[in-house]
Each structure stands twice: as C-alpha cells, then as structure tokens.
Amino acid sequence: MRSTERISFQTQDIILVLKEKKKIRQWIVDAIKNEGKKTGDITYIFCSDEYLLSMNQQYLHHDDYTDVITFDYTDGDRVSGDIFMSVERILDNSIQLKTTPEEELHRVMIHGVMHLCGYKDKQPKERANMTKKEDQYLKIF
Questions:
Q1: Helix %, strand %, coil % for the chain, to 5?
Q2: Strands annotated E in 18-125
Q3: Closest CA to 31 of 122, 126, 107, 121
Q4: How far apart are CA 107 and CA 17, in angstroms?
Q5: CA dist 32 to 11, 23, 89, 119, Å?
Q6: What is the pTM of this model?
C-alpha cells in the first residue's frame, strides 16, 4: 500500500466535497517525511460544531467549541491518528482571520498532522512553533 493511500477522508453529520484529495494526501505525506517520520494510517473526519463539541466534552472534558481534535495513535516514527475537524468552526475562523475557507481548512489539516508528529500548542512558545510549522507547510501546498 502506498503511503498516500493510508490517508482517508470521511464526514460525520455534514456534507463536504473535499477538492484536490490526491494533492492533499501527497502534501501530508511529504510533510511527515520532512519531519523525519513515516506515514501510518491517518483518517480525517469532517463534522459539525455540535458533533465536535460533544467529543470535546466526552473525551477531553472541555466544554467549548474547537476546530480540531486529534487522537494520536503514532507508534514509534510511524505517524497515525484520527483528526476530527469542525467545518463550521473552520469557516468562522476563515472569516475572522480574513483568509479563504480552503486555506484555513488546510491550516487545520496540517495542524492535526503536526500534533501527530509530536508538536504541542498549549504554551505560548509551543503555539508559536506550531504556527511556524503550519506556515512552512502551507507555503509548500
């Protein structure tokens, strides 16, 4: 199985037509390789605000909306996980950040991958480093 085939896209309670799937898969594989790791099984699940809020409450015990939750199943240097993304939150963020919905979608997608590669974003320094990585990979896309 080629590494790009290990990246899948699903929807939960919404309709989304993802453009350029092949290009996105290759971009993610290249980013993971650039981080010195290998691509395992990665599933993106696009969903609504309410769906992601319920997951945030159930699994992380947070009672707020978020754009992404990453479940990390990485084993050694093989990057694997489930990345749940709220399409509604991404659209709202794109308006607030004055960017296109596609660019914000790609930012959140690579953000989830960077979490799987071991990057954190809880502290200001970590957040700055994560943003730097996102920007680096967005330029490549």
A1: 50, 20, 25
A2: 38-47, 68-72, 78-86
A3: 107
A4: 17
A5: 23, 14, 25, 12
A6: 0.93
Q: What is the DSSP letter of 75?
A: B
| Crossing angle of helices 101-116 and 21-34, rounded to 10° | 40
The maximal CA–CA distance of the chain, rounded, in angstroms, is 40
Helical (H) or strand (E) element with 57: helix 49-60
| Mean pLDDT, range 93-117, rounded to an integer | 96
Tell me: the pLDDT tens digits for 23-80?
999 999 999 999 999 999 999 999 999 999 999 899 888 888 999 999 999 999 999 9
Token reading at 48: 């609504």
* Alpha-carbon gap, residue 1 to 4, rounded angstroms: 8
The set of residues, in sequence order, having a beta carbon less than 8 Å from that of 140 and lying 6+ positions away, is 27, 30, 31
- pLDDT tens track for 123-134: 999 999 999 999
